[in-house]
UniProtKB/TrEMBL annotation:
Its main location: endoplasmic reticulum. The keyword Signal does not apply. One of its GO terms (cellular component) is endoplasmic reticulum membrane. It comes from Pseudozyma antarctica (strain T-34) (Yeast). This is Uncharacterized conserved protein. It comes from the Eukaryota. The chain crosses the membrane at residues 70-93, 551-572, 690-712, 718-738, 790-811, 823-841, 861-883, 904-929, 935-953, 974-993, 1024-1048, 1068-1087, 1107-1129. InterPro entries: Alkaline_phosphatase_core_sf (IPR017850), Phosphodiest/P_Trfase (IPR002591), PIG-O_N (IPR037675), PIGO/GPI13 (IPR039524). One of its GO terms (biological process) is GPI anchor biosynthetic process.
Length: 1144
């Protein structure tokens, strides 16, 4: 706000030397004066000043006390809250999110296939004991059972087309087969419908296996349903081992390539095939297993393919559409085509398995979206490749073409949306799969289907991208069913850990199908029996109580720690405001002479001492108790997972510290808190109390909305409404309380600007699947995942204008001086413009004209270096900020009359804390600007300017409190940020989250930003870039903005004033309010997901992702709060050094 009586610019009545921290000025060239009448420059570090202080100690104020202890207490309290939150999450997650135990067993059955095998003689009685004894005879290891079938094919070619969605290969509707109603509602997409037609053509030409009356060519085309999370690494586990993934495993996908994370230790059908081949050829022979494509396979299945016939390619470079696909084609075709020019004797002979994993379709989706002309081009390439494969394969070869997952219209995947799980599969053999004895009288799926099974795993699932009719009845199979099916068709054992069944259409004869089902069921029973001895998951059947109690204990402990954490944070927040009673140093004039007395803390330093004394012993006792309980749980029945030592330590120490703090805060502290609230009511205007209540009401409504499925999926609209309401209230109260017309206009303008910018920030939007027709995605240009050139122009303009807008806000307090102009001109603006320019180059490199010119590689190189420089500039800016002086400037005015002294004004003094801190916020913002796509960049720019407008409103609100206290003669004290102001900043963070193209879904993760600086995956930079893109706006910005609001226009108290600034306490109070906001959202999502909705059908689709977002935000935001407080500490040290300001 402009300089006023509440924050005046100091004037010095004579020429004084300028401290180096004042920045560039002509005065820096002057010689030092030996004395000064100004307290603002009396701390100059010149020897003449030191000698003067030695001669006249009564005239020179003592050296200012360091603020280190006060801010160290702030950091300690914030770290305590972070540790307690982590402990609660650790315990809750281990009881809530599913985990899976890997069993390292393998199917070691060596019994050869026997075409004449028959069942053992049936039992003569049918009691349970007799039936179980007879069933043991079907065990292939100890009884007379079989473990494999005679192979239908000796060789197999498996082509994985990454992200091959079912409708990409589904046959087009026959002419006249679609009703007039469907014709009007559905139109084929020219970019991916009826492009890859070979699977449908050959299947229609030769028929499916169940339709065959005699051996011959046959194909099977189906909707291939993946299990979420739909990430490549997890899908490859399911496609090779037949296991089901968990949410925990989704995080391994990023760490897969070259890290060893995500390796499959369980049995797979490829391992079974290799063991079978080497058993015949010898352990030192080549198995003839060949691979080319996605390098994830090298991590998932190391050592299974022959080393000299395994070619891997980088899987994460989404900018490269062709290298992997061309590599797969050039490496595999020589094995199939005898006349291929690259074929070499001894290398391309005697193979048994060819696996190719192409990535072009997936990369086109990530880069451009599904509805783009490059998708048609890529599917056309796959059509030609598959045509070459089918033309070259012989009668003894089985071809399997499949997608590991699907993609949505923007090319994203990872969640459980219909388009993400809807992959396609096509199996084809020129010699067919045998003949049927059913004569087509009954559908094969009906042989193994029951009403109960259809309810769980329907054999036909509608797929919305295709018209229904006629596609309402297409065949759907789970992906894990491929594992036993392919194993038995190739004549090898079913993998030990498999949970899939067989595809009945591929075992056309009823007798063969029955034998296949029996082999699979025997294997599954063996695995489940072994799994029940290692994991509590299955022992619910013997009995359920022994399995569920520990999960309930973990969930209960986790929720207890989270709830106690809320109470602890509230107590700490109250302590930052009114103090906590503890044993502290006595006043110098204490009558009884005791060194310590029971009294309320004053300032952050004493608060930290009280908190430490309250939690130290209870935390140690709790940790010891928790460790003892963990040891005791080792005595629980076998098969039930016990509490680990880490569980016990975390739970005990967290609960102990929380209870110790709560108990110490009871009684006297509680009464003091009530009295403090009563005194605050008198010391705070009614409008501020209303804003404080409005902030808590918004928080409660935000957390309460998680109890409704409908409200939760439209959280982005709630955030917009809540932000608008708060800014409307704040603006109305500010205008109503303004003392002058100029202030009314100015504050009203700030509120209107904030309202308009909040609305603008909500315009870029990515819709989640559940929002359906109620939402229109505006983040990208149309349905493709392309950035609009118009938006990029706007983003570039915003990058240029934003530093000037921030400078305008600084100019209101005459703080745009010193190093600030240089910082904005040579650091912030170039970094922002490079961030916007990167996405322009990213858009340009994909243009057909650039591709045709041959300059695409050069543009890619330039784009990468632009990103490197755009990241490097903020890094250099932060280093500069650490050592830079304050944003100050001294101006001299000549004496107006002879005999008068020169008047010197220090510009920027009233906002010296805020003007310095905003430089750091700008540097962090520049990084977030780069990693956000253009529409999101506009949203972030709107959020930042709205936050600065909120600073001005907040400053006016605190001025109102000061004036109210002066009018009512209320004792002066620290003026804290009200809950409404903190809630506004927290909601702006969520506006940035949703406006940057995200939702609380896995599918909205923008993986492409991992390659901003390099076309290949790099650690740890790539995961860090994705994390910044996904969580930076909601985790990093709010803590920084809260601290900025605390120090904005907080005029330093000069040395000798006899008072200390309560900045550390105010900062702690505000950051704890923000922590309470995030913690309550976390606790609400955890409690609802872990208790009320733990059996809800939408648990893992809606509530679990929201809980994961809340957990990530709570941890990252609290860590960012510590970093923000450290930066505030550093800024306070600068002010302490220059002006002698003391902090408490």
């Amino acid at each position: 706000m402009p300089t006023s009586a509440l924050n005046p610019a100091p004037e010095v009545n004579m020429a004084t030397p300028q401290h180096p921290a004042f920045g560039g000025s002509a005065l820096r060239q002057r010689r030092s004066s030996h004395s000064s009448h100004s307290s603002h420059s009396s701390h100059s570090s010149h020897s003449s000043h030191s000698s003067y202080a030695a001669r006249h100690p009564d005239r020179v104020p003592p050296k200012a006390a360091s603020p280190n202890r006060a801010f160290l207490a702030v950091i300690g309290v914030l770290a305590l809250v972070l540790l307690q939150t982590f402990a609660g999450l650790w315990l809750f997650v281990k009881g809530f999110l599913l985990t899976r135990h890997e069993l390292l067993g393998a199917n070691n059955c060596t019994r050869p296939a026997d075409s004449a095998w028959t069942l053992p003689a049936p039992p003569t009685a049918f009691d349970d004991a007799t039936l179980l004894k007879w069933a043991e005879m079907l065990d292939p290891q100890t009884g007379l059972g079989e473990c494999r079938l005679k192979p239908t094919h000796s060789k197999a070619v498996v082509i994985v087309i990454d992200a091959l969605r079912y409708d990409f290969i589904a046959p087009p509707p026959a002419a006249g087969s679609v009703s007039e109603r469907v014709d009007l509602a559905w139109k084929p997409n020219p970019h991916y419908h009826s492009v890859l037609t070979l699977p449908a053509q050959l299947t229609a030409q030769h028929g499916s296996p169940v339709q065959a009356k005699r051996p011959g060519s046959a194909g099977f085309l189906a909707h291939f349903v993946a299990d979420p999370p739909t990430t490549t690494l997890q899908r490859l586990k399911g496609l090779t081992a037949g296991t089901l993934p968990t949410f925990f495993e989704a995080g391994a996908n990023f760490g897969s390539a070259g890290t060893g994370v995500g390796r499959v230790h369980e049995d797979t059908w490829i391992a079974q095939l290799r063991a079978s081949i080497l058993a015949q050829r010898g352990a030192d022979a080549r198995a003839g297993l060949v691979f080319a494509g996605d390098d994830t396979w090298a991590t998932v299945l190391p050592g299974l393919f022959d080393n000299d016939t395994m070619w891997t390619y980088d899987s994460f470079n989404v900018e490269d559409l062709d290298t992997v696909d061309r590599g797969v084609e050039s490496r595999l075709l020589p094995f199939l085509q005898p006349q291929h020019p690259d074929r070499k004797a001894g290398v391309h002979d005697h193979w048994r398995l060819l696996v190719g994993h192409t990535l072009g379709v997936d990369h086109v989706g990530h880069r451009f979206g599904a509805s783009h002309e490059k998708m048609a081009t890529k599917l056309g390439e796959m059509q030609r490749f598959l045509q070459n494969v089918t033309d070259a394969m012989d009668d003894d070869t089985l071809l399997v073409v499949l997608g590991d997952h699907g993609m949505d219209e923007h090319g994203d995947h990872g969640g459980d949306g219909e388009l993400e799980v809807g992959a396609g599969i096509w199996m084809y053999a020129k010699s067919g799969f045998g003949h049927t004895a059913r004569g087509g009288k009954m559908d094969a799926a009906e042989y193994i289907s029951t009403p109960e099974l259809e309810a769980l795993l329907p054999s036909r699932i509608a797929f919305s991208p295709l018209p229904s009719p006629p596609y309402g009845g297409h065949r759907s199979i789970p992906q894990i069913d491929l594992v036993p099916t392919l194993s038995l068709l190739l004549g090898v054992g079913v993998p030990y850990s498999n949970l899939g069944s067989v595809v009945p259409e591929l075992f056309a004869h009823p007798d063969t199908l029955l034998r296949a089902l029996r082999i699979t069921a025997t294997q599954m029973r063996t695995y489940l029996a072994a799994y029940a001895t290692q994991s509590p998951d299955l022992t619910a059947f013997r009995p359920e109580l022994d399995t569920r109690w520990l999960a309930a204990v973990r969930i209960g402990l986790g929720l207890l720690v989270l709830v106690l954490g809320l109470a602890s944070a509230w107590v700490l927040r109250s302590g930052a405001r009114a103090g906590l009673i503890g044993r502290l140093d006595a006043d110098a004039d204490a009558a009884d002479g005791d060194a310590t007395v029971e009294r309320a803390s004053s300032g952050a330093e004493e608060l930290g001492r009280v908190v430490y004394a309250a939690v130290r012993t209870p935390a140690l006792v709790g940790a010891a108790t928790g460790a003892a309980v963990a040891v005791a749980t080792q005595l629980v029945p076998a098969g039930v997972t016990s509490l680990t030592l880490l569980d016990g330590l975390l739970a005990g120490s967290a609960v102990g510290s929380q209870l110790g703090l709560l108990l110490s805060a009871s009684s006297a502290n509680l009464r003091r808190s009530i009295r403090s609230q009563e005194s605050d009511s008198a010391a705070v205007p009614t409008t501020i109390r209303v804003l404080d209540a409005a902030g808590w009401i918004v928080l409660l409504l935000h957390a309460g909305s998680f109890a409704s499925n409908s409200l939760l999926i439209f959280e982005d609209r709630f955030v917009l409404l809540a932000s608008a309401v708060l800014f409307l209230l704040r603006g109305a109260f500010a205008v109503g309380a303004a003392s002058t017309q100029r202030q009314q206009v100015r504050l009203g303008l700030m509120a209107v600007v904030a309202l308009l910018l909040v609305r603008a920030a909500s315009m870029p939007r990515v819709c989640r699947e559940e929002q359906a027709a109620s939402c229109t995605s505006t983040f990208f240009a149309g349905t493709a995942a392309l950035n609009s050139p118009y938006v990029m122009v706007g983003s570039y303009a915003a990058a240029y204008a934003l530093p000037r807008v921030v400078a305008w806000f600084l100019a209101q307090s005459r703080s745009y001086v010193g190093v600030a102009p240089m910082f904005f001109t040579w650091a912030l603006r170039p970094a922002l413009m490079l961030g916007a320019g990167y996405w322009v180059l990213d858009w340009a490199v994909a243009l057909n004209a650039v591709q045709a010119s041959g300059e695409a590689a050069r543009v890619e190189w330039v784009k990468g270096w632009v990103a490197v420089v755009a990241l490097g500039l903020p890094g250099v800016a932060v280093v500069f900020w650490v050592f830079a002086p304050l944003c100050l400037e001294i101006r001299r005015e000549a004496a107006e009359a002879e005999g008068e002294k020169t008047k010197v004004t220090i510009l920027g003094y009233s906002n010296s804390l805020g003007s310095s801190y905003v430089l750091l916020v700008g540097a962090v913002f520049a990084v977030l600007f780069l990693v956000t796509q253009p529409a999101g960049q506009l949203a972030l720019a709107a959020v930042l300017v709205a936050a600065l407008a909120a600073m001005e409103l907040g400053d006016a609100e605190r001025d109102r409190v000061v004036l109210h206290r002066q009018r009512t003669e209320t004792p002066a004290g620290a003026v804290h940020l009200c809950a409404g102001e903190v809630a506004s900043l927290a909601l702006l963070g969520y506006m940035g989250l949703f406006g940057s193209g995200h939702q609380a879904t896995l599918a909205s993760i923008q993986w492409r930003v991992a390659f901003l600086t390099s076309p290949t995956l790099s650690y740890p930079l790539s995961p860090l870039l994705v994390a910044l893109n996904s969580f930076g706006a909601v985790s990093l910005l709010p803590p920084l903005l809260v601290v900025l609001s605390v120090v904005w226009n907080a005029t330093p108290l000069p040395r000798g004033s006899g008072r200390k600034m309560p900045t550390p306490s105010v900062m702690l109070h505000a950051l704890l309010t923000l922590a309470l906001y995030n913690a309550l959202l976390l606790t609400a999502s955890a409690a609802l997901a872990g208790t009320l909705f733990s059996r809800h059908l939408m648990l893992f689709k809606v509530w679990t992702p929201r809980f994961m977002l809340a957990a990530t935000v709570a941890l990252l935001a609290q860590a960012a709060a510590i970093a923000a407080a450290l930066a505030g500490w550093h800024t306070a040290n600068k002010v302490n050094t220059i002006f002698g300001t003391e902090f408490a």
